[in-house]
């Protein structure tokens, strides 16, 4: 209806005296190819299925423009970026892979540690571990001799310091 004055109550209400019965349908919207929307007596809702296993069960791909998940999200074996052919996070038994488009594995994390394919670069490329194992540390590009690199022990004492000017000191 289009009468705003009458919009304060329920527009459509479906009620069943069957209780929380999983075998009874409160609502079944279907066409000749199958179920489109199914609401069971136990409040489980199926989209594309007449036998939802979860509170909300979609048979097929579901797309959400935005969303918030509070709690745990369970996924099958991957999470992919929509539309670019393979960028995503892939799960296997005791292993997680991060892949770029085209399915190239860039990082693998398992019980033994992390393995990276290619360079590891910090923000602004100040620290880089190259795929061949070379390590680069860029201290300061303005040559004001204020930056340094230090290796410290567990008590936060410097045991090796490399100044921007190139001077090294050992403790």
Which helices and strands, and how do they pair?
Layout (H helix, E strand, L loop, with lengths): L24 E7 L2 E7 L4 E3 L8 E3 L19 E3 L7 E5 L2 E6 L3 E7 L2 E4 L3 E2 L5 E3 L5 E3 L10 E5 L5 E6 L4 E3 L1
Parallel strand pairs: 3-4
Antiparallel strand pairs: 1-2, 2-3, 5-6, 6-7, 7-8, 8-9, 10-11, 11-12, 13-14, 14-15
Key features?
171 residues, 15 strands, five-stranded antiparallel β-sheet, four-stranded mixed β-sheet, mainly beta, elongated
Q: What does the model show?
A:
The protein contains no helices and 15 strands. The model has no long low-confidence stretch (mean pLDDT 78). The radius of gyration is 29 Å and the shape is elongated. It has strands at residues 25-31, 34-40, 45-47, 56-58, 78-80, 88-92, 95-100, 104-110, 113-116, 120-121, 127-129, 135-137, 148-152, 158-163, 168-170. By secondary structure, it is mainly β. 0% of the residues lie in helices and 39% in strands. A 5-stranded antiparallel sheet has the order 5-6-7-8-9, with no helix packed on it.
């Amino acid at each position: 209806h289009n009468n705003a004055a009458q919009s304060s109550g329920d527009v459509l209400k479906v009620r069943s005296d069957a209780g929380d019965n999983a075998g009874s349908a409160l609502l079944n919207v279907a066409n000749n190819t199958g179920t489109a929307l199914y609401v069971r007596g136990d409040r489980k809702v199926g989209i594309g299925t007449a036998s939802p296993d979860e509170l909300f069960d979609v048979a097929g791909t579901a797309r959400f423009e935005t969303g918030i998940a509070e709690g745990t999200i369970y996924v099958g074996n991957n999470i992919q970026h929509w539309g670019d052919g393979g960028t995503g996070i892939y799960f296997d038994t005791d292993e997680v892979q991060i892949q770029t488009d085209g399915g190239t594995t860039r990082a693998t994390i398992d019980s033994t540690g992390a393995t990276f394919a290619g360079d590891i670069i910090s923000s602004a490329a100040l620290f880089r571990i190259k795929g061949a194992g070379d390590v680069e540390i860029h201290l300061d590009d303005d040559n004001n001799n204020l930056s340094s690199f230090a290796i410290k022990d567990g008590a936060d004492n410097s045991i090796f310091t490399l100044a921007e000017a190139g001077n090294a000191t050992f403790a």
